Amino acid sequence: MSKDMVRQNGKWEFNYEVASCFNDMLSRSIPLYEIMRKLSNNLAGEYAIPNTPILDIGCSLGGAIRELNDDFELSNTFIGIDNSMDMILEAKKNFKNRTNMMFIRHDLREGLPEIPAPSVVLSILTLQFIPVEYRQKLIKEIFNALREDGAFIFVEKVLGNSAEHEETFTKLYYQLKEENGYSYEDIKRKRYNLEGVLVPSSTEWNCEMLRTAGFRKIDIFWKWLNFCGWIAIK
User: Fold this and answer.
1) Which among 173, 174, 183 has a CA at the least distance from the CA of 228?
2) CA atoms of 128 and 123, how far apart (whole Å)
3) Label partner for 156 (CA 20 to 30 A): which of 3, 32, 191, 203?
């Protein structure tokens, strides 16, 4: 696994440089990353119906659907969607011998591709990169696409419920990144790069989007300061 040495200028891009070290970047930038992914996969395994599609939007290198395939030996088709061609090319290269895994480049601002009735849809740290005005429509399309009793597993960076909480959570999050080897300048630069690209919303606003889309069985399965994971059942 290549170490994250990315130093971008201007707005953040998920380019080849990022794709080549993305696993290291995630493990050092997302708190309790392995625990969150394990929980997400275990929940997906509980709701996956044999011989149905499992869809991962914002799949990056395809790690989530690979682990689902490996851990549960599911008889499903796994479909990964990402807007970054560099991510898709790396995923296709990494899993070229897996006939039940498919990777598609697609811009989610154009809506959800037509996928025949998935039993599980994953969105792990993805919607925060989609402009706010497109998010509600996309979640509604996910709800419509899912089978009855299908699961939407959804993880996002979130805002604190007050300015004080937001400031404290951000401070502690940056301390974690420093403990994981990022310098103050690294953190400052990436924060600048991500302005206007990663736009989080509050925990309650995300819950309200799920309810508005039609989900009624909604629960939080993981939370760490300004990161949150939900499971929503159709």
Assistant:
1) 173
2) 10
3) 3
Supply the range of the domain harboring residue 161. Answer: 26-233
Query: Distance (Å, rounded) from C-alpha 160 to C-alpha 225?
Result: 8
Q: Report whether pLDDT(9) > 90.
A: no
Largest CA-CA distance found in the chain, in angstroms, rounded: 50
What is the tens place of the pLDDT at every residue in 164-192?
999 999 999 999 999 999 999 999 999 99
Our count of domains for the chain comes to: 1
Q: Quick one: 93 exposed, middle or buried, by C-beta within 10 A (0-12, 13-18, 19+)? A: exposed
Is residue 4 one of the residues assigned to a domain?
no
The secondary structure of the chain in percent helix, strand, coil, rounded to multiples of 5, reads 45, 20, 35
Residue 195: is it exposed, middle or buried by C-beta count within 10 angstroms (0-12/13-18/19+)?
Answer: exposed
Assign residue 52 the CATH number of its domain: 3.40.50.150
Q: What 3-state DSSP class applies to 105?
A: strand
